[in-house]
Design goal:
This protein folds into 2 domains: 64 residues, no CATH class; 178 residues, Rossmann fold (3-Layer(aba) Sandwich), CATH 3.40.50. It is built from 7 helices and 11 strands. Helix 2 crosses helix 3. The structure holds S-adenosylmethionine. S-adenosylmethionine (SAM) binds next to helix 3.
């Protein structure tokens, strides 16, 4: 028996006081209709329904839609192991695209945690469709789902994936346990042989870069650190960029708007973005002319 669930959201309605009431009413209507037509009553399963129906009420307009994805699309299926504060996969991909990353330059994330930025970068560079290895979509439970057509589409998308990277991608972190997680996550997309992951602290001992490239990173925002420690961390990031990253285009994504001032470099771009509810900035530091150009 096919199960279903209703997800209702009500805004500015005079008819419905709350979303739950709208959901209940829609559920009853569906159950009644099936009982009339077939004599059988479909069951509700809110945890893992076969069919998910969304009801959106805005003033007197009601939109009823079928959810074709199920688990949200940003969950691409590779990140089974997480660091303490991972970025959403789609946010990491958005940061890379706003930064202008296309795979035509080397990329380093020296505070990579569970590896989201390097993995999303590799997917962009290799032309890999975001949910290529995801096994389940809600539309697979629909009556008109055509598995052969789906297999053909997936096979086409797989054949469009490049086999190797033109420029290296490196993820490093001071924590050896998160580096293991990043490696395992990359393995799920068969990217473990392409992305380099290393346990390495990001400070002035970090090996200086030889050619040009991009650095994109998401340092801790400091919830678990005291203020002086987080200021020291961000000022160390600025010093390391100055000393070891000449020729690089560096991007820092942070939700600590005070701490980023301690980087001590003048950003050539500041972009407001949100990480869930946290207001963040994506800051660009062009290290092309060495320390002189970017210094305050
Ligand atoms: C906000 S998390 C990064 C999360 C990552 N973007 C992801 O999606 O999983 C920040 C990371 O910075 C690392 N970190 C903090 N200080 C560091 C340092 N000095 N050198 C290298 N890594 C550091 C932490 O171990 C942590 O994994």
């Amino acid at each position: 028996m096919t199960t279903f669930a209703i997800d209702a959201l009500v805004n500015f309605s005079r008819t419905f006081d709350n979303s739950m009431y709208a959901g209940q009413l829609a559920k009853d209507a569906i159950v009644d209709r099936f009982r009339e037509e077939t004599g059988a009553r479909p069951s509700v399963d809110t945890s893992d329904p076969d069919i998910q129906i969304n009801i959106h009420v805005n003033k007197n307009v009601i939109t009823v839609s079928l959810d074709s994805s199920g688990i949200p699309l940003h969950k691409r299926g590779y990140r089974m192991e997480q660091s303490k504060a991972p970025l959403n996969e789609n946010l990491a991909a958005g940061i890379l695209l706003i930064a202008g990353y296309t795979g035509d330059r080397a990329l380093i994330d020296p505070m990579c945690g569970s590896g989201t930025i390097p993995i999303e970068a590799a997917m962009i560079a290799l032309n890999m469709a975001p949910s290529l290895y995801r096994e389940k979509f809600a539309f697979m439970n629909w009556n008109n789902y055509d598995p052969d057509l789906f297999d053909t589409v997936i096979a086409e998308a797989k054949s469009a994936v490049k086999r190797s990277l033109e420029f290296p991608i490196l993820g490093s972190d001071k924590d050896k346990y998160v580096i293991e997680k990043a490696k395992n996550n990359a393995k799920r997309l068969h990217l473990d042989n392409l992305i380099e992951f290393e346990k390495m602290r990001f400070d002035n001992q970090f090996p200086p870069v030889k050619d040009s490239g991009m650095l994109i990173t998401n340092p801790p925002y400091g919830e678990r650190l005291d203020v002086s420690a987080i200021d020291t961390l961000y000022s160390m990031i600025g010093d390391t960029l100055k000393q070891n990253f000449e020729g690089y285009d560096a991007f820092i994504f942070s939700g600590n708007l005070e701490a980023v001032k301690f980087v001590g470099l003048k950003p050539s771009m500041k972009r407001k973005m949100f990480n869930g509810p946290i207001e963040c900035r994506l800051l660009r530091y062009e290290m092309y002319g060495g320390s002189k150009k970017s210094k305050k």
